[in-house]
């Protein structure tokens, strides 16, 4: 609570009182990893399957209602079907969960910062009788860490006596995750799902920021023609150049693409496109400029006032 309140001053630690405390004496045997089909969770599972020093997941947990609209039944069935085949390809079980919490809380709380980890790990703890370790995947690498719902400094604090919560994958950037693990696995590529727009119920739209960056990463890794879930879409320099970089994290990711493309040298048109997106001011920044100017003016003329 102290960390969260440090991230957001509107949040205050609360006192927790309990009439009695109980020790969880269960000793579950399974290991689960949350799995959406995306780059982060695919990387985590492949890393654990391929390293005998790490506990291999016995199950994947797929949550309906997190990153796509669970009420779209056709898309839900498509996601379920493909992820079930990926789980079978990995040789592990699949556990499905469903939540409508996001539909209730989205109007009030920002998903990425405040909702994501508590909802996900709360679902994990509801299954803690089955799993002694539950793995959640990092969406942000260590050099780019920002206060965010899924964070290596906070996620393990959800652990109990019976179930250890592990935050994995922050050692690798998105481009590295694709190159090091995802591009090497036809099983992971067969279900790769990164889109957050899903227009017309598309599994991957092939046009949004996440789809385009994943396509660029797959092309760099030489795996584009082995990934069936983008229906033949290609990295499009025009779409990449037009991307709206709304925060520092997105800008850092673009800088990483530029450095990787520059070192690779095979796709100068993509390098130019990413540089163009970086040179543009984001729409959000342009929208805030008039307010910032107003703050400067007002503070200059009435220093005691703060907008
Ligand atoms: Zn998309």
Ordered list of secondary-structure elements with their pairings:
Elements: H1 2-7, E1 30-34, H2 39-50, E2 59-64, H3 73-90, E3 93-98, H4 101-105, H5 111-126, E4 131-137, E5 164-168, H6 174-180, H7 186-190, H8 209-220, H9 237-242, H10 248-264, H11 268-279, H12 283-301
Parallel strand pairs: 1-2, 1-4, 2-3, 4-5
Helix pairs in contact: 6-8, 10-11
If you had to describe this structure to a student in words, what would you say it looks like?
The chain has about 300 residues and is α/β, with parallel strands linked by helices. The protein has a domain at about 25-175: Rossmann fold. Helices cover about 45% and strands about 10% of the residues. It has helices spanning about 1-5, 40-50, 75-90, 100-105, 110-125, 175-180, 185-190, 210-220, 235-240, 250-265, 270-280, 285-300; strands at about 30-35, 60-65, 95-100, 130-135, 165-170. It has a 5-stranded parallel beta sheet with strand order 3-2-1-4-5, with helices on both faces. Strand 2, helix 3 and strand 3 form a beta-alpha-beta unit. Helix 6 crosses helix 8 (about 210-220). The radius of gyration is 21 Å and the shape is globular. Residues about 290-305 have low confidence and may be disordered.
């Amino acid at each position: 609570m102290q960390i969260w309140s440090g991230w957001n001053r509107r949040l205050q630690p609360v006192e927790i009182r309990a009439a009695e405390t109980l020790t969880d004496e269960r000793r579950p045997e399974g290991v689960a990893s949350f799995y959406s089909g995306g780059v982060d969770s695919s990387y985590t599972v492949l890393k654990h399957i391929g390293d005998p020093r790490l506990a291999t997941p016995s199950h994947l947990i797929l949550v309906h209602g997190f990153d796509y609209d669970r009420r779209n039944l056709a898309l839900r069935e498509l996601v379920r079907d493909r992820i079930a085949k990926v789980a079978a390809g990995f040789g592990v079980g699949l556990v499905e969960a469903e939540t409508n919490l996001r539909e209730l809380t989205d109007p009030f709380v920002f998903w990425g910062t405040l909702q994501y980890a508590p909802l996900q790990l709360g679902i994990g703890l509801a299954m803690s009788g089955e799993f002694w370790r539950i793995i959640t995947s990092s969406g942000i690498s260590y050099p780019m860490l920002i206060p965010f719902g899924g964070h290596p400094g906070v996620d393990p604090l959800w652990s109990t006596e019976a179930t250890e919560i592990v935050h994995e994958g922050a050692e690798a950037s998105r481009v590295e995750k694709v190159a090091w693990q995802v591009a090497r696995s036809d099983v992971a590529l067969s279900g790769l799902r990164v889109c957050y727009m899903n227009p017309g119920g598309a599994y991957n739209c092939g046009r949004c920021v996440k789809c385009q960056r994943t396509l660029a990463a797959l092309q760099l890794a030489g795996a584009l023609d082995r990934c069936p879930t983008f229906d033949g879409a290609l990295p499009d320099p025009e779409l990449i150049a037009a991307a709206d970089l709304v925060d520092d994290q997105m800008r850092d990711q673009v800088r990483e693409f530029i450095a990787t493309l520059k070192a690779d040298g095979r796709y100068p048109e993509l390098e130019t496109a990413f540089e163009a997106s970086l040179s543009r001011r984001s729409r959000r920044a342009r929208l805030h400029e008039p307010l910032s100017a107003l703050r400067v003016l007002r503070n200059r003329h009435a220093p005691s006032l703060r907008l």
